[in-house]
Amino acid sequence: MAEVAAAIFTTHVPRLMIRDPAARKAYMGRDVSTFYDAMERLERERLRHLKFDTFLLFDTHWFTTLDYVINAHPRLSGIYTSEELPAMLHDLPYDYAGDPELAGAIERAARERGMHALASAHRNLPIHYPTLTVMAYLNPQANRAVLSVGVCQTASVVNDLNFGAAIGEALRTIDRRVVLVASGGLSHKFWDYDHARERASASPDDISSADNRAFDERIMRWFRAGRHDEVIAHAQEFRERCTPEGRFSHYLMMAGAMGAERWNWRGEQFGRYEAALGTGQAIFFFAPPQAGAMQ
Fold first, then answer.
1. What is the pLDDT at residue 291?
2. How far is CA 54 from each of CA 98, 176, 177, 191, 268, rounded to the nearest angstrom?
3. Which domain holds residue 174?
4. 78 Cβ partners below 8 Å, 6+ apart?
5. CB–CB of 68/163 below 8 Å?
6. What tens digit of pLDDT does each residue of 252-280 get?
7. How many domains does one find in the chain?
8. Which pTM value belongs to this model?
9. What is the pLDDT of the chain when averaged over all its residues?
10. For the chain, how far is it from start to end, CA to CA, in angstroms?
């Protein structure tokens, strides 16, 4: 029976791929990220023994313009080097089963709602690092399928929620148990070129704006309380004031799939709230109350 087994809001920062502890310290200095242990603990304690088939992941570096686009390839494989930060993230091999059946079901459900959507199996459709860094930690055995979904940069908050609702409808039409993953950060203002390296620590003191940090903390309080209605009510303001990563569409599509304002699962935080070159980053796991993952 189709079902959402869990939902995750997670950072995907490239520093996750710095494997050597000395190199981590050299880059982040006085305050090294807690996300290394947090991601491993999330996989070990919440996902490893959870029964599900597919990670359905909203990728905030995959920007589309005319359509919501879903990767419909039956296999995602290759070797990845980041064009943004090649010294930090390079020569990463990946090989995951895709889920073209679910991609097609989402396209149909969205079009039935009058939306522009495309399940794309075009050759050389790229995979971006918000998918790959997260899967390196949460799907280490590559034993779950991966379905990557882009962010439509011209879409409104209402559009994103509506597309998410189409995903929810699609899941009810096929036999698939999924974990939804909103791969992206919170507020997203970088330090400038002349100051970014000296503010590369994970300390929240290195968030680039006090206002951004305060709004991030409001969002996280609502996550913990399961008040997705409040998050959605303030999403447009968050977009306008804090330029959240991916326009916050990763969260909005996930919330739409979960019933939007009706969604009330509480978030369990893994690791702490951190800065990444001025941006706000966090990891939250949402599971049904009966699953016992949260109090």
1. 52
2. 8, 8, 7, 36, 21
3. 3-291
4. 93, 94, 127
5. yes
6. 999 999 999 999 999 999 999 999 999 99
7. 1
8. 0.96
9. 96
10. 26
